[in-house]
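Exercise (ungraded).
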Amino acid sequence: MPTVPTAAPTPTPHPDPTRRYAFFGPVGTFSEAALRTVVPVGTAPADPYPSVDATIAAVRAGRADVGVVPIENSVEGGVSATLDGLAAGDPLLVVGEVVIPVTFVLAARPGTTLADVGVVSTHSHGYAQVRRWLAQHLPGARYVPSLSTASAAAGLAQAAADGTGAGYDAAVCAPVAAERFGLQVLAEDIGDNRGAVTRFVLLARPAGDDGRVVLPAPTGADRTSLVAFLRTDHPGALVEVLEQFVTRGVNLSRIESRPTGDALGRYCFSIDCEGHVAEARVGEALMGLHRVCEQVRFLGSYPRADGRPALPGSGPDEDAFAAAEGWLRRVRAGRAG
Amino acid sequence: MPTVPTAAPTPTPHPDPTRRYAFFGPVGTFSEAALRTVVPVGTAPADPYPSVDATIAAVRAGRADVGVVPIENSVEGGVSATLDGLAAGDPLLVVGEVVIPVTFVLAARPGTTLADVGVVSTHSHGYAQVRRWLAQHLPGARYVPSLSTASAAAGLAQAAADGTGAGYDAAVCAPVAAERFGLQVLAEDIGDNRGAVTRFVLLARPAGDDGRVVLPAPTGADRTSLVAFLRTDHPGALVEVLEQFVTRGVNLSRIESRPTGDALGRYCFSIDCEGHVAEARVGEALMGLHRVCEQVRFLGSYPRADGRPALPGSGPDEDAFAAAEGWLRRVRAGRAG
Amino acid sequence: MPTVPTAAPTPTPHPDPTRRYAFFGPVGTFSEAALRTVVPVGTAPADPYPSVDATIAAVRAGRADVGVVPIENSVEGGVSATLDGLAAGDPLLVVGEVVIPVTFVLAARPGTTLADVGVVSTHSHGYAQVRRWLAQHLPGARYVPSLSTASAAAGLAQAAADGTGAGYDAAVCAPVAAERFGLQVLAEDIGDNRGAVTRFVLLARPAGDDGRVVLPAPTGADRTSLVAFLRTDHPGALVEVLEQFVTRGVNLSRIESRPTGDALGRYCFSIDCEGHVAEARVGEALMGLHRVCEQVRFLGSYPRADGRPALPGSGPDEDAFAAAEGWLRRVRAGRAG
Amino acid sequence: MPTVPTAAPTPTPHPDPTRRYAFFGPVGTFSEAALRTVVPVGTAPADPYPSVDATIAAVRAGRADVGVVPIENSVEGGVSATLDGLAAGDPLLVVGEVVIPVTFVLAARPGTTLADVGVVSTHSHGYAQVRRWLAQHLPGARYVPSLSTASAAAGLAQAAADGTGAGYDAAVCAPVAAERFGLQVLAEDIGDNRGAVTRFVLLARPAGDDGRVVLPAPTGADRTSLVAFLRTDHPGALVEVLEQFVTRGVNLSRIESRPTGDALGRYCFSIDCEGHVAEARVGEALMGLHRVCEQVRFLGSYPRADGRPALPGSGPDEDAFAAAEGWLRRVRAGRAG
């Protein structure tokens, strides 16, 4: 096992049978689908947890080595439970990401027809993504929220097994969930936004004194995530934070405000930028943030799922950073600059 | 009735018996509590709607003149349904705001004790605000989501009336909901964040050709809301938008990113700033936004609930704007500047 | 009439026989050459003044209607006497500009050869532009400063007429000065920077109550000049000033710091920007400056000598400004924005 | 030894009898006065040179080890010859600064009275600082430029010795020049701006392979000088340069534009900032400049003449820089940040 973390083999997407995985379950969730792109069934132990919070807690407590939770949906935006779970509590690192398309089906117990559906259940994020379809095809249907899209499907199957009612007639869920729970698909691909995707992150505990390698090595196509707590909330404060990136030519790929919970109008900012903390430009931008912010929580540098390198021409490159360092060494020695 | 909108009497908080109100219901929600600070029971017709979407749609369709929905919670952040509902669809104006403290109780059918509670239901936002209390006092309890905090309470009452089970034993709701639905309070003030507040907005259709006065007159302590769609998503674009405010000395009180739904990493920004669109500094900042953004949706200028005027010394005041205008007129006439 | 490549015949102001012109003389200076591109000999009265200060004072006192002085040289930079003369004292307006190439000759009394030249005289700005030539061709020559390049030539002629010595053997001056004063050209085109040009401005008193039209009308290819006195001298103050232009998409074509004379490190900024004060973007930028600066002195909007319009794509155009104004009117009326 | 209020005795460089000094002469100039605050008469060899250019050239060529030239006057601004001489040619380092008050006298051959003075000579910078006095007390006097204030005094003495005329009747010069050249003071303290001061710099060749120590050690109250050549001349480019300082909390004490000599509107910027290149914040700001500029010429870090430390609270301090570096090391090792 190498001792230089930044030269370590990237833990994603090689499944590791010695590691135990946790995911936001039950089986059949999109989180499991994301996990399975990295850890095929049977290659390593993987346990479902009933919520994002529980999944994160399992990693923190050491009951799992890696956890998989959704962080961002192209339609619904950031997943608050994940963003807030990472922003507070014991530190965790994002060690990888998976982006998967989100396709919904309407599933019901075999024998049900569309005309039979008076009540529909799914997770509120899923519901938000099929509202137009439901309004058009099931205008009279009532909505009942569930803990996850898969749990809505599981509830139907469980009720069938128990010979009781589930309180609803159909579930909006992933195709795989309908399959797992033996449901019949009444309608396919019912999402209002074709092309909707969700990004999931793989979480691990940061390195301690045990020599574990956690931080993925730079690949040239990386993303860095962090949370910035502003010192004050005037608009200039946010500009000051953004200038730390602009000045070093580092592009942001996501910025989301999150309330700190103290009062209305008190925010922290959840930020993804291009590049890896091992790169000079990213390192310097992060040091700049550290100096102007009340607190910065580093959440990890990891390979981008799309493998896209940082945009060329968006600022000084690593060579320019190296040249500037050499120049500074010379002038600090009193030589001609 | 005056024809100059900006000189009109502020519609908030005077109830108007000729107006019909809509709120995110059922009765007993925090939205109704917010509405009642403006429109006491019996002073004007007020109808509950089962969701934020339905409430907004009722105002758009003319079934109500004013709608009341939550927009921001000090713990959970922006209310996506409201932010997204205002950002797209037919334009609506915010004509007032109400901020109310959020206090939760655990309520159950009379005769229930805390030891009897195995399943708890509430809205997911409410659940997020009492998680710590539940983990401490009902560590084994399961959570079932509901459409609103009040509907969880209503469900208990309805099941009792029907002589059936509700699928859960207790509801987390507002004190007023427990009272309305004849429930017994098992525990009071169970929110994890004492001092949590939620801000609600009053929505109305914008003025048309009918002479209606919609925009509240400036009071000296106003807030302006808008949605800015950036032309491109590089960090410089957001800085460019923020500079429009900074340059004119206009403070922001809220900025939240929201996905546009097109793709990961495509955002619009929901922004509140200090001041009224009728003021020179705000008007000029908004024109600047209009020029650099792909689109700006003006959501209204209205009195702040806290009555706090714009921070002094945060930039040039209206006198400085007036002086600059007078100076420009002189130099454009070829006189000494 | 000189051939002036970078200066298309400036249309403003048309030579006006009822106007009296002043120029930094004596005859034979580059200032006179600049004047003659606008006011050919014999078309209107034109008087030489012995210094930039005296020329400016003549316009201020009404002894002349228009004065011509150099403001900027491509090699030596801003002409302090002009910049400082415009920044303080009774206001004047720049009503036109002329750019002419600067070509130097070495001139002496007829019969003199290069080998005879032991002492050379010229204005210090002229000297700075021929130093390399002198070091190469007259390495032993001593330098004696003069009040203007033309006065060095005039001194030689006067001494010849008086039958005395001038204190120097040759003058560095414009070709026209050698011709006017009957001198022999020992060497042509001796400037170190081929392509050196000097920009001259035409100054007039601003409009008063007399109905005079002073400010040139916009031509689509204009320049605006001003002096900005910063409120404080921290770097953020200069950034704040520059942001007023950047925010409105107005390009600067010149910025020069000048001491205010109070103390080391106290500066004002002499600025030229693209466009005309009558344009919305320039007007708004100037109002912004007026608000954030201790003082702004408007020095005029006038046609560019090179006829080049503002760079396309450098910011919102006039249409975008007009669209933003229309939009603001609508939203201020409470209509959908 | 003159009393120099704003210039505490500069400790750098200690007069060193093994070093040879050059100054902008002749004897009696303000440059010599500046030199004498560091190198009293008789302590080390010091040679006058007839111009700033010649003084700089003497240091470059090794004919002197340290040169003293004026760089900035509180009334007239930057000294172009010095700024341009440092910006181009073989690199030199500023190793110290001296600030001295500028006091002018009107001096003439003994026996002359004020009424006898028809022609006055001095350097053009000196003339600019006594114009108001001359206009008031010698309204009819003509002005003849000289190479330095001291050379005007020297010319009078020389002409007296030669029994000839100097071409002028009185010189505007430093009190010490009148004394040196045996002139009579007709009027004292005739400068228009009481409190005018001039800042002089001590120049040396940068370190080579010879082990010489050139860069002064940090004292906690230092200044750093440099020249920045912008990549492009749009206003955003200057903002980008200034942001490099603002982002690191480094204050500027002087910024002056200078033409590069290529064309009108092409500038480089001569900049002084607070602090020493050995400090983290200054080093990082300079690296940032190096990356965004076409070229940066480092001109030295040296103790401020006024001994004033960098303004407190103007940005992150050295501790904050050190803390950020430690934090970056930890997160780069994959530990909790």
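Further reading is listed at the end of the chapter. For now, observe: Residues 216-337 of chain A form a domain with the Alpha-Beta Plaits fold (CATH 3.30.70.260). Residues 230 and 237 of chain A are 7 Å apart (CA to CA).
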